Amino acid sequence: MRKAVDRLYGHRVMRRRAAEVTSESALRGARASAALAGADWPLEEVRRRSDFGADAEARTIGAALRVAAEAGQLLSVWRHSPLQVLARLHLLAVGDADPAAGRPRRAGEDAEELFPLDLPAAETVESVEVDPAAPVPVLPPAPGADEVAARLDQLSRLLVARAEGQGVGTPALVVAAVVHGELLALRPFGSHNGVIARAAQRIVLIAEGLDPKSICPAEVGLAELGTDAYRRALAGYLAGTPEGMAAWIGHCGSALRLGVRESTAVCEAMQRGMV
């Protein structure tokens, strides 16, 4: 994975137009994350629009764009207070008019469905090695508020310790995948948990130095792999078995690799003067 990312960073376009590639990656990642959250709009429609308050789909797009725009700016806070960043991302997603903005679910409060829309795998993506006849697993309900609070605190402690130099032998992709999976498992907020989990993964990849300029939109890869594969991989994470964890990390790695491919294509288009 590191070699694929390094090849992208070594592209000629990155020498003089890195900021543009970062912006395009954020846009494409936000579009894909919104698609996974139920608003599958064409990229050019997302690029063209300026009003994202008209209906539920537009609000989902707007939420993903706001989260993507600020995620990379929260790195310094993330290193010492990941939970503060998660609260900020939720506030960005829902807007400060929502009384639940920025706070985890309370007892008795439900979380929105993670995958409200079925996205098929893209034709350009190699098939995932699973039995197509096997049923897509039904994900369990979100944990209760007390369990969410305890596991969020544990996750935060681990991330802060990591930032302070402990556990440095763990690969960046593994850390990012665990953060991504744990937030999907907990669904700590009433809404936008998928968008927030994917943004948190992006922040980890920046913080860990694997993708410091945030030019590898793994969200694009997740959308291209399709929601069935996403569900199956997440079910493996939730099972907690070595095989399940390996499948989840592998899925996140495949998505990141597809994100590298996406930005490589962007760089090639820029080099040809098409962007």
UniProtKB/TrEMBL annotation:
InterPro entries: Fido, Fido-like_dom_sf
Chain segments annotated as transmembrane: none
PROSITE patterns: FIDO
Residue ranges annotated for the Fido domain, each copy included: 81-251
Taxonomy, superkingdom: Bacteria
Gene3D superfamilies (alphabetical): Fido-like domain
Protein name: Oxidoreductase
Natural source organism: Streptomyces rubellomurinus (strain ATCC 31215)
